[in-house]
Amino acid sequence: MPRKIVIWVVLAALVVTFVGVLGARMAEGAVLPEIILGPLGLTDALFYLFAAMTFAGAATVALSKNILHSALGLLAALMGTGSLYVFLSADFLAVTQLLVYIGGVLVLILFAVMLTNRITEVKISNASLGLVGGGALLVATVPVLVFVAIATPWATIVPAELAPTTREIGNAFLTRWLLPFELASLVLLATLIGAVVIARKELKQDEPDTSVS
Amino acid sequence: MTPLQTYFPLAIAFIVAGALAALLVGAAALLGPRRPSAVKAAPFECGSDPIGSARERFGVKFYMVALLFIVFDVEAVFVYPWAVLLRDLGWSGYIAMAFFAFTLVIGLAYVWKKGALEMETD
Description:
A: Four Helix Bundle (Hemerythrin (Met), subunit A), 2 domains, B: Methane Monooxygenase Hydroxylase, Chain G, domain 1
C-alpha cells in the first residue's frame, strides 16, 4: 500500500510541475488570437452537432459498463469523425472512414465481442474507472490541449468549393509515395497470415474432435 | 457550389433514412396492439424451442470471414484512387497496382490452402 501512495504522490507532483511550467510558458509567450464570434450559420451548427456526436460516442465507449453499448458508442464516434473529415474537405477520407472503420473494423470488433469466452459476464467488464488516475490525466492533458488549440496558427481559410481529393490521393499513392503504398499491401498480407495462424490455434484448442466429424 | 450545397443530397438521404426508420418504428409502437405472452417473449429460433442462452460463443471462423472482408475492403479503398487516374498513370500505375493486388492474392491463396474458408467442417 505505501508503494501505491508513493506512486500517486510522484504522479501528482509531476502533474503539478507540468501544469505549472506550461502555464508559465502560456502566460509569457502565447499570442492569443482574437476570437471571432460571428453569427452561427448552418455549417457551424452542423459542425457542433457532429462534434457532439463524436464526443458522446467516445464518452459512451469509455463509460458504458456494457461492452456492446461501448461498441455502439464507437459507431457514433467513428461516424462523427467521418463527418468532421468532410468539414476538412477530405471527402475520400470520409468515405474511407465509412467503408473501412464503420463497415469493417466495427463489425470486426462486434465479432470479437461475440467471440469472447466470458460473454455472459459482459456487464462487469468495464467496472473500474480509476477516478483518481483519470482526474490526474485530465489535469495534465487539458492545459496541453488548450495551449495547442490556442497557440497553433490554424489555417482558417475555408475553400469556397469542395473539390474531390481522390485524384490527388491516387497521384500521391502511385508516384511519390509508391513504396509506402506497396508496403500497405504487405501489412494486409501479414494481417491475413496472422489471422489464419491465430484462428488455426483457436480451432485446434476448441474443437479437438474436428477430425471425427 | 458551397460545401453545404455539395453535400445536400447526402443530407437528404440521411434525413429520409432517419425519418423512415422513425416512422416505421413509431407507427408500429403507436398503432400496433400489445398483448405480450410467454410464447411471444421467447427468442425466435425458427420455430423450435430455444436451447440455452443466445449469448453463446461464436465460432472463430466467422471472425476469419470478417477479417478477410476488411482486408479486401481496404484493398478496394486503395484501388479506387488508382482507378480514377487509370489513363493518366498508364502502365507504371498498372504494374504498381498489380503488385499490390498480387500480394493480397498470395494471402488469399494461403488462407484458402489452410482451409480457413471452409465453413462446413463442423
